[in-house]
Amino acid sequence: MAYVGTQLTDNHIHNIEKDALHDLISLERLDLSHNALTAVQKRAFKGAPALRSLQLDNNQITCLDEGSVKGLTELEILTLNNNNITTLPRDMFAGMSRLRALRLSENPFACDCHLSWLARYLKNASRLAPYTRCHSPGQLKGQNVADLHEQEFKCSGK
User: Fold this and answer.
1) What is the pTM for the complete model shown?
2) What is d(CA 10, CA 5) in angstroms, rounded to the nearest whole number?
């Protein structure tokens, strides 16, 4: 089965405005890899409820708003490899029961108390994000997020 899709790779795209995909209700595949995206804002993909594959690899993404992919219940493939993501909003993938491929490798994840939810999520979905590794703190650097125990995710300070 062929996806109805758009490939926008290598276009030097820096930003996706809120509601940029307004009324693209048939769009099933969107590839924005190899651009210059630094953030994905809330409601960026709201206008594309049928989206099944979203590829955001090889950008400079540091921030994903918790509402950026919320409501994409048809999503099966989400790739965010090779960005600058250090953390993800809690329960970001909640409601994505069809997700079968999640790729988060080559991101500098800070494995602190704010990311412990991701370890729980990946333990329950072992086929997803197999190469998601910690970049910091030092004692966890290089370790697979899904292999860590919740008590290993610590925050300093109050």
Assistant:
1) 0.90
2) 16
